[in-house]
Amino acid sequence: MTDQQRETLRPAVVVVGASRGIGRAIANVAAREGAIVVLVARSSDGLAAAADDVKAAGGQAFTFSLDLLAADASTRLKDFLTSHGLVCDVLVNSAGYGLRGPATTLPTADQLGMVDLNIRALTDMTLQFLPEMVARGHGGVLNLGSIAGFTPGPNMALYYASKAFVRSFSEALHQEVKATGVTVTCVAPGPVATEFLERSGAGRAALFKILPKLSSDYVAERAWRGFKSGRRLVVPGLSAKLVALVASSLPSAVKVPLIGRLQRRSRDLCPCGSGKPFKECCGSRQARRAGV
Ligand SMILES: NC(=O)c1ccc[n+]([C@@H]2O[C@H](COP(=O)([O-])OP(=O)(O)OC[C@H]3O[C@@H](n4cnc5c(N)ncnc54)[C@H](OP(=O)(O)O)[C@@H]3O)[C@@H](O)[C@H]2O)c1
Fold it and tell me: Where are the beta strands (DSSP E) in the chain?
């Protein structure tokens, strides 16, 4: 592509994970500013509905059905943008999933899939588009972390670890590129009322029942505003801020067992692999008395 062709590309807000939930809500916030929004996810129906919302909010919408677990996902997205005369000015990485339960009892393939989506795909997208933003001296990346990124989380171990990665990676990138006029922001919400809670099983754990659930619209507004003002980290809502503060200050010896208990359910299988519920196995009164 020649320099002249490159200059004619129109800047777009690319939302990855836009067919529902927080990503879809962020797409609407950007659309209200009249943005060209590229909506990316697997479900064509979800994307079509999200595109209708974007147009109704005053934006221009493009949809691209893509499985982020494909090895060439970021290249295909880049090709899609170029073929439509677009360049990624803002990248929103909102695709992600969680799994609740002891890591030794959850299917390994599902857990590796989560690492692939929450970590590898987010990194791939970021590294595909961030260098051109830096070269243009404009735009940025908004990554969806979580308050789970502030602490280890037994019974959702890999999800918490994946969000710790997102926070660490994003905050470090923010520092690296901020002098170039580009922003990298990590948004770290507490529970948000989306399908995520049901799909991950997190919504049935005591911890997520105790914490108030924010709406995806509220989280999207805060995330977008924080990103636009060049923030490194956005934790939307007072309860999430308090949890992040407590999680960052309590010693692991106190917080990790507490989170483990609050995320365990009585019917969870025992991590020892017996196939029995934890309460009737290593978590039984007799086992605890015997010091197992
Ligand atoms: N909801 C919460 O309580 C909460 C709290 C803190 C952080 N977060 C984080 O916020 C982000 C968004 O969560 P959400 O609540 O909006 O979840 P959600 O409602 O389940 O939406 C997830 C989005 O990711 C897309 N996606 C999933 N797998 C994909 C794949 N292989 N390829 C392409 N797209 C894929 C889904 O679209 P398709 O299925 O159509 O592909 C959907 O658009 C996640 O990273 C999550 O960890 C959520």
Answer: 10-16, 36-41, 60-65, 86-93, 140-144, 183-187, 233-234
Write the pLDDT tens digit of every residue in 185-234.
Answer: 999 999 999 999 999 988 888 888 889 999 999 999 999 999 999 999 99
Domain limits for position 107: 3-266
Residue 282 domain flag: no
Domain with 72 in it: what CATH number?
Answer: 3.40.50.720
Q: Which two tokens stand for residue 42?
A: 């697997």
To the nearest whole percent, how much of the chain has pLDDT over 70?
Answer: 97
Ligand 1, closest atom to CA 93? Answer: 45
71 DSSP 8-state letter: T
Residue bearing tokens 């919400």: 189
Give distance in angstroms: CA of 118 to centre of ligand 1. 9
Ligand 1 pocket, Cβ-based, cut-off 6 angstroms: 17-23, 41-43, 46, 66-69, 94-98, 117, 144, 146, 189, 191-192, 194-197, 199
Catalytic residue flag (residue 159): yes
Ligand 1 mean position, distance from CA 177 (Å): 26
Whether 271 maps to a domain, the answer reads no
pLDDT of residue 274: 86
